[in-house]
Amino acid sequence: MSKKIIYLDHNATAPVRAGIKEAVLPYLNSAFGNPSSIHALGREAKRDLERAREQVAGFIGAPLTNVFFTSGGTESNNLAILGAARFAKKKGKGNHLITTAVEHDAVLTTCKYLEQNEDFELTVLPVDQYGMITVDQVVEALKDNTILVSVMMANNEIGTFLPIKEIGTILREKDILFHTDAVQAMNTYDVNVSQLPVDLLSLSGHKIGALKGIGALYVRSQVRLHPLQHGGEQEMTLRSGTENLIGAVSLGKACELTAQDKKEKRDQLKQLRDCLWKGIQSSIEDVSVNGAPEARLINTLSVSFKGAEGEAILLALDMAGVAASSGSACASGSVESSHVLEAIGLPEDLAENTVRFSLGYSTTQEEIDHVLEILPQLISRIRLANG
Ligand SMILES: *Cc1c(COP(=O)(O)O)cnc(C)c1O
Q1: Residue 68 · residue 238 · CB < 8 Å
Q2: 0.90 cut: is pTM over it?
Q3: Ligand 1 pocket: which of 76, 158, 183 to mutate (most atoms within 8 A of CB)
Q4: pLDDT bracket for residue 47 (50, 70, 90)
Q5: Residue ranges of domains in the chain, CATH in brackets
């Protein structure tokens, strides 16, 4: 356990940020109150919960009352989609949903669930080779009974940014609800809902260095949702259950710290990612990058190493103390091939040759240099073994 791991898997989860531990420590000790209690301990808990909400709201430019804590990105996506779709359908507004082929499973599977079980219609928009869709595609897919469109802000596997602002502008004119999964964008991209025509926006704590099991959903003021959980009516009845105070505090703090890093370290992060790609390109043959060349998350590098099994590369990297991830779904370590790589039209064998490197603010030049030092030999060894 002596060797330090070079962690290039930030899109799966980020290390808990420095400063979070200190921020949450009181809640493991004396600050254990229930925010709903009326005594002093409860009032303190409530105050701290609301301070955390302020930090999250500030981070995305939202009014305080439009931010709701959830258990993470998955729940935020479920609450947004199930909640908005069921409410609109009940009101007789329609039953047609639109999403894209590259969404996270928390969106895609949720939409498919509604299609299969609750009498909704679903259009899944195909993407181009970069994982992009056009505004025209959305417009052409609209029907009289369309109630909700869900398009992610940036893709977790290949990093491509989708045209959220343009899509949202059209949908707002037509009075159709718009949800975006912004989980991966929050770390490096400035998201401000006061300037973004979205009705619902999901974020997740552990992708920006907060604890796991906390997230938030932004809900624009006029938008109504059916809750998924019923009970004590916490979170303005949208999310019953005693609040995850320690998680919320960690998320608030992580938002503050991430805003700082975005200002100070963003350029350096992109430089490191580009350095990794240039190094790979110049030292290894038959490599290609997946995702949009420019409109792409600055920390993300999805590379296909022709003729080298991604799983084998990951194992070899792991043995060398480098943590990365395959193009495959991260779902419980399953080796199911990636629906995103399939959607961008990558041939199956090339999809299986794909590795995702995702950097973070703690990544150093030395770490990238080290990876570039070991990678060429590692790849040629695997290519030889693969014949
Ligand atoms: C990680 C991730 C999620 C799920 O968030 P959890 O907090 O792990 O449930 C949703 N969407 C995207 C794009 C993600 O990267």
Answers
A1: yes
A2: yes
A3: 183
A4: very high
A5: 6-14+262-385 (3.90.1150.10), 20-257 (3.40.640.10)
